[in-house]
């Protein structure tokens, strides 16, 4: 798991699949606004035309100055935000699309599997998810990682 301390150094690192294929370079990292955990990385590769693709960091690793992602290049290239104009922060709706695309669950759902235990009681993102009916395209629980935060 990538730590908060490693976030500031990641910008500019090359991103690879766990099979050794180069995907692109790290533009920036999005962290959970409540927990501060790194959640998503934005990858671009100007040489191949890949621009602004978000990839989850949940099972990623750092190897020297390389970010290693456990997803195939073809899956990353087909990510929803590759075709959309996702801004610098993902909306709740965009994040849900990405969870489905990569076949992962929202970590808050996994922690809350026992009916209200865990983050659900303290995570304001849960309030965002429940209190934004019809506004999911604008609300976000993420923020770009900043040095020293």
List keywords for this structure.
seven-stranded mixed β-sheet, single chain, alpha+beta, 6 helices, 149 residues, globular
Q: Give the overall pLDDT as a whole number.
A: 74
Rg (CA only): 15 Å
Q: Tally the helices: what do you get?
A: 6
Q: Element order, helices and strands?
A: HEEEEEEHHHHHE
Shape: globular
**How widely separated are the two ends?**
18 Å
Q: Residue share in helices?
A: 25-40%
Name the poorly predicted regions: 115-129, 131-136
Structural class: alpha+beta
Main β sheet profile: 7 strands, mixed
Q: What proportion of the residues form beta strands (DSSP E)? A: 25-35%
Strand elements, count: 7
Please summarize what this structure is.
This protein has helices at 4-10, 73-77, 80-83, 92-102, 107-111, 124-131, and strands at 14-17, 22-32, 38-45, 50-56, 61-63, 66-69, 142-144. The chain is built from 6 helices and 7 strands.
Describe this structure in words.
Helix content is 27%, strand content 27%. The chain is built from six helices and seven strands; from the N terminus they run αββββββαααααβ. Strands 1, 2, 3, 4, 5, 6 and 7 form a seven-stranded mixed beta sheet that branches. The protein has helices at 4-10, 73-77, 80-83, 92-102, 107-111, 124-131; strands at 14-17, 22-32, 38-45, 50-56, 61-63, 66-69, 142-144. A hairpin with a 5-residue loop joins strand 2 (22-32) and strand 3 (38-45).
């Amino acid at each position: 798991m990538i730590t908060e301390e490693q976030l500031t150094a990641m910008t500019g690192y090359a991103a690879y699949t766990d099979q050794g294929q180069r995907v692109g370079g790290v533009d920036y990292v999005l962290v959970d606004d409540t927990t501060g955990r790194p959640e998503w990385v934005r990858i671009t590769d100007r040489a191949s035309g890949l621009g602004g693709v978000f990839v989850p960091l949940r099972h990623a690793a750092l190897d020297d100055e390389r970010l290693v992602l456990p997803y195939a290049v073809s899956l990353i290239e087909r990510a929803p935000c590759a075709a959309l104009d996702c801004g610098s922060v993902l909306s709740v709706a965009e994040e849900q699309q990405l969870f489905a695309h990569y076949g992962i669950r929202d970590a808050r759902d996994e922690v809350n599997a026992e009916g209200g235990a865990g983050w659900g009681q303290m995570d304001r993102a849960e309030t965002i998810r429940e209190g934004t009916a019809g506004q999911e395209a604008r609300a976000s629980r993420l923020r770009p990682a900043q040095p020293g935060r």
